[in-house]
Every structure is written in C-alpha cells, then in structure tokens.
Specification:
The protein is of the alpha/beta class. It has a domain of 223 residues: Glutaconate Coenzyme A-transferase, CATH 3.40.1080. The chain has 13 helices and 14 strands. Strands 1, 2, 4, 6, 10, 11, 12, 13 and 14 form a 9-stranded mixed β-sheet that branches. Strands 7-9-8 form a 3-stranded antiparallel β-sheet, with helices on one face. A two-stranded parallel ribbon has the order 3-5. α1 packs across α2. The protein is globular. The two termini are 42 Å apart.
C-alpha cells in the first residue's frame, strides 16, 4: 500500500456505499463471474439498501445474497447459476416464483451491447437477428416494448434487431490494483468489466492493492477505467472472496459450496447473512472470522503463486520535438 498517496476518493467500503449508492438506483456489477466485488455487495446488504435494480451479464450467487438481503426490486441479467437444480433451487429462483422481484432476461451479448452503447454515448446497438426467434425476444418484463426494436437497415433493406443503450446509476467493480486517483487496472479474463463500468454514471472501485501513479504508468494497457471517471477508491484485500482474483488468490470452492448449500432455503441463507454479513462490520472482520472458522493455513493455500508476464517496452527517445542536438 502506498502511504504517501492522498486523495479525497480514498475511503472505506462503508463510506463509499453510503455516499454513492442510494435506494431505488440501478446498480451494475461490472465484473464477469470472477473478481466479483463481494466486499461492496456485502456492504450494500449491511446498509439495507432497498428497491435497487441490478444489472449484471452473469451471476453465480451475488444476486441470491442481494435478494435475501431485501435489496433488489428488479434484475437485468442473462444467467444466474442454478446450484442444486430443480430439486432445490436458489433464493433468486424463489424470489421470481414468489414475485418478490422482476427479471428481464437477455443474452450475455445483448446486455454487453446495451452497456457498450451507453458507454460510447450511443442510443442503441445492433444484436444478432436470431434472438428474434427465442423466448428472450418474445417474453418481456419491465422493459416492455423497449426490450428490443426491429428496424430496416438503411443500407441493405434487411431487418435488424436493436437493443437500447443502458446507463445504470452506479457500477461496483473489483480490480487487482488502483492508484489514489482511481486509475483501475484489471488483467486476466476481463469479461464485461470495462464497458459495464464506463456505461455507469458513478463508479465505485475496490482493489486488492493501492499503487502509485508510476506503477500505473508503466503498465497502461492494464488500465480499464481512467481515474477521472471514478468516484470512490476502496482498498480491500480479499475483497472479491470467495471468487478468484488473478495473481492474488484462487476461487474458494469449499466456501462457495457451503454458501450454495445454505442457498437451498430462504431460512438457511438468512443464517449465512447473519454470520458473514450482519454480524461483521467490515472485510477485515470477515477475514478474521474466516480464519477463526477454517484456519489461516487454508486461507493461505488460496494465495496465488507468482507467474509473471513478459514486460513490454514502452520506451522512446524521450526527446522533445523542439529539441536541437
């Protein structure tokens, strides 16, 4: 951690969620199935945010926790992992059947196209016409007639299918490292993180590590979110646990299996929230409780072993154009 960096963007998860996420807003989980911002998700639940619309291309158990916490009114997604199958179900499925939430179902690419359009300042994006022949097109929830639009291509005269641009209120995203101004760097499988973040009006970044600007400048290709777009920077080691973060730690299969088992009933998932969210004030206490329950040795086994990429050369003569030898 860089002690000398000072920025009004640096804050803990509690302050960031309180300041930048309000009841009734549209919240986008920008990460795609890994590096999930669980520390921020837990804080949203802990602060009892309400009537939120969740945007995410794909989910494992993030939506289940937010639904169980009473935070969500609507969800826009393409996938949510159905652990346990038809015999058990998940909190997400139970909420749909009990009409506690509304869900708009898209394909992964369709949601990404909506977010890309929003990030680029466009009003729509074209998606594959084949979607017209699926239930994704035919079945509509709160998006209604604006879920898709079919128009004639001005160049070919053929019918094309469009989705509207999306600009959720706030993105939450977890990355490997960030500087004090919010220049956020993510590597590995990037998924939708870049476009999902940039489509949103506000961005809250949590990161494994705070680095100086020089470190960021030496690896500019890893910066997916420029600092001027970021509202809050939360330095949160283990902030994506139990999901994985390349270069830092692996997916915690056993912990996620435990969560999956507790997701088989509404009562048991509330027990999970009580133990792992409500009874703990922050991520530091979460990790301390994890060590108490499972031992530090098992946590340390999740740490990634170094496997460095080959450096690239960004050098030049560094001479000014007006310089005369």
């Amino acid at each position: 951690m860089v002690e000398s960096e000072v920025s009004d963007k640096l804050m803990d998860a509690s302050e960031a969620v309180k300041k930048f996420i309000s009841d009734g807003e549209q919240v986008c989980i920008a990460n795609f199935l890994q590096s999930s911002p669980f520390a921020l998700i837990h804080e949203i639940i802990r602060q009892k945010k309400r009537e939120l619309t969740l945007w995410s291309t794909s989910l494992i158990d993030e939506a289940d926790l937010l639904v169980a916490g009473g935070c969500l009114k609507r969800i826009v997604t393409a996938f949510s992992f159905r652990l346990g199958g038809a015999n058990y179900g998940t909190e997400f499925e139970r909420a749909i059947k009990e009409k506690r939430i509304e869900v708009e179902d898209y394909s992964n690419y369709s949601i990404l196209a909506m977010l890309m359009a929003g990030a680029m300042g466009q009003t729509f994006m074209q998606v594959p016409i084949g979607l017209k022949y699926t239930d994704i097109f035919r079945r509509r929830s709160f998006m209604g007639e604006n879920k898709f639009k079919e128009v004639e291509c001005p160049f070919t005269g053929k019918k094309v299918l469009l989705v509207p641009a999306a600009n959720p209120d706030v993105a939450i995203v977890h990355v490997q490292r960030v500087d004090a101004e919010g220049n956020a760097q993510l590597w590995g499988a990037l998924g939708t993180a870049k476009w999902a973040s940039l489509a949103c009006k506000k961005i809250v970044v949590s990161a494994e590590e705070l680095v100086d600007r020089e470190t960021v400048n030496r690896s500019p290709h890893h910066t997916i979110i420029p600092g001027f777009r970021v509202n809050a920077v939360v330095v949160e080691p283990w902030g994506a646990h139990p999901s994985e973060v390349h270069g830092y730690y692996d997916l915690d299969f056993l912990f996620r299996a435990m969560l999956g088992a507790m997701n088989w009933s509404s009562e048991s998932i509330q027990h999970f929230l009580t133990e792992w969210v409500y009874n703990l004030e922050n991520r530091e206490q979460y990790i301390a409780h994890y060590i108490e329950r499972f031992g530090k040795e098992y946590l340390e086994r999740l740490r990634a072993k170094p496997y460095y990429s080959v450096p690239v050369n960004y050098g030049s003569s560094f001479r000014k154009h007006t310089q005369i030898d």
